[in-house]
Design brief:
By secondary structure, this protein is α/β, with parallel strands linked by helices. The protein contains twelve helices and nine strands. Helix 4 crosses helix 10.
């Protein structure tokens, strides 16, 4: 595995390259993770794919050129993300690729399919919050009042931790989700990153009609993977979407939200090889 940077007008994008296969897969990790999250796929799929694992915005070594609060509040338009990915692929000589996204990363993977369907061969999303982000993301990301409340809360560690415990009591998140978020708010920098991630997702909401049209028109293989014990994104969140579109595969693993493991890798490899 090697580590690289891609300079773009608005971002310094850090990414990892692993595997040496003739096909390409762009990888979008979950909240609090990094571009190496899907490295365990290399053992079973590294001869078929070359993987490009990005550190997403406000994670690890990827940074905006302007990280001011005002810039963060503007968010990331789908067209900007598509331009970034298209320019990255041109830089690396990639003409077609698959995408894989986990949880928060499913929003990024979905936007790529919506905006650049002619380049996408396979669309894989696990714990696909892009299908239904849930009340928390909608309230704190899209709602003006909710976003302002989140901005204020992020200035206080104690208030942030108390808020997560309230969410658990209200069953808006489970214990696993609370603990994941808990680890991500220990410093002012991490709390700012949490605020920024919620804020950015508001402009990356799935356009179901456009996604279905892209998948169908370009005959993109689609794989949706759920954890049977994932209280954050149960398989039932896909019910409405799947009534309008029949994916290539729907996989339900005996896992909770933290499902990117060897079981995940084995099941996915069986579908792709």
């Amino acid at each position: 595995m090697t580590s690289h940077y891609f300079e773009h007008p608005f971002i310094k994008l850090h990414y990892y390259k692993f595997g040496n296969g003739p096909q390409h897969m762009l990888c979008f990790h979950g909240f609090g993770m990094h571009g190496k999250q899907f490295r365990l796929l290399e053992e079973k799929l590294g001869d078929r794919y070359t993987f490009w694992g990005f550190d997403l915005l406000f994670h690890k070594d990827t940074v905006l050129k302007d990280q001011s609060l005002a810039t963060v509040k503007e968010g990331l338009k789908k067209s900007q993300l598509a331009e970034l990915i298209a320019d990255f692929c041109k830089h690396e000589g990639i003409t077609s690729f698959s995408v894989i996204g986990y949880s928060m990363g499913s929003h990024y993977a979905t936007v790529v399919v919506e905006e650049l369907p002619q380049m996408v061969k396979e669309y894989i999303v696990a714990a696909p919050s892009s299908l239904n982000p849930g009340r928390l993301i909608r309230f704190f990301g899209k709602g003006k009042m909710g976003n302002k409340i989140l901005e204020k809360l992020m200035l206080s560690e104690k208030a942030t931790l108390n808020l997560l415990n309230v969410f658990k009591k209200l069953r808006l998140i489970d214990a696993v989700g609370r603990d994941i978020l808990f680890k991500e708010v220990g410093t002012p920098e991490l709390r700012f990153a949490l605020y920024a991630c919620f804020t950015y997702l508001r402009l990356l909401e799935t356009d179901e009609a456009k996604l279905i049209r892209s998948l169908s028109t370009y005959n993109i293989k689609s794989i949706f993977i759920f954890g049977e014990r994932d209280r954050n994104y149960l398989p039932s969140i896909g019910r409405a979407f799947f009534s309008k579109y029949k994916p290539s595969e729907i996989v339900i693993l005996d896992e909770n939200h933290e499902m990117i493991n060897q079981n995940f890798a084995s099941r996915l490899a069986a579908l792709l090889l």
